[in-house]
Amino acid sequence: MNKIGIDLGGTKIEGILTDENFQSITRKRIPTNQQDGYESILNSIKNLILQLSEESTEKFSIGICTPGSLSLDSGLIKNSNTQCLIGKDLKNDLKNLLNQDLSIENDANCFALAEAKLGAGKDQNLVFGVIMGTGVGGGIIIDEKIHYGRTNIAGEWGHHCLHLDGNNCYGKNHFLMILVYLLQMS
Distance between CA atoms of 120 and 76, rounded to whole angstroms? Predict the structure, then answer.
């Protein structure tokens, strides 16, 4: 089965179609145009996936990495530098728009997991990955599993409350994370 991966960023949306061995078949990049709003981003992702799927001769799965995290309570996007995504049900909206199941995960978690499984962190028990683009983010991988923490932002070092009267970030929940829990990615 082929795979389509979408990297939703603050300024660009990049997609790749790979075969079952993760060999690239084709790759495309388009602007995010977040100023045009949430519906525009949904349609851009849909159109990009349709373009990539034209190069596939077989069925494909879809995985999307996004700025921000999914709320454990609601499944809605939180803590995103692409602010029009905040409070939106990106996973289900795309699933309904595409009429296909898909996986969605924080972009920094995806990056860190890829490094732990395939890159510089391969064969290491602990990997911390940092991405810097339109925003900044981090992911923690322990024994090849994403380390989420109690509010699903364990690696997002920019969203932790260090001073109770400090500035707000894109998220509504501010916690000092002292203990984090290891959760298996589904």
Answer: 32
Pull the structure tokens for residue 60: 């494909």
DSSP, res 147? B
Token representation of residue 105: 């995960």
> pLDDT grade, residue 168 (50/70/90)?
low
Strands 60-66 and 103-106: parallel
Angle between helices 90-98 and 38-53 (to 10 degrees): 50
Please give the average per-residue pLDDT across 81-97, as a whole number.
95
**pTM score:** 0.82
Inform me whether the pLDDT recorded for 136 exceeds 70: yes
DSSP at 5: E
In single-letter form, the type of residue at position 116 comes to A
Structure token digits, residue 55: 């190069």
Give the up-direction half-sphere exposure of residue 145: CA atoms within 13 A in the CB hemisphere: 10
Q: Set out the domains of the chain in order of their start, with CATH numbers.
A: 2-105 (3.30.420.40)
d(CA 4, CA 178): 36
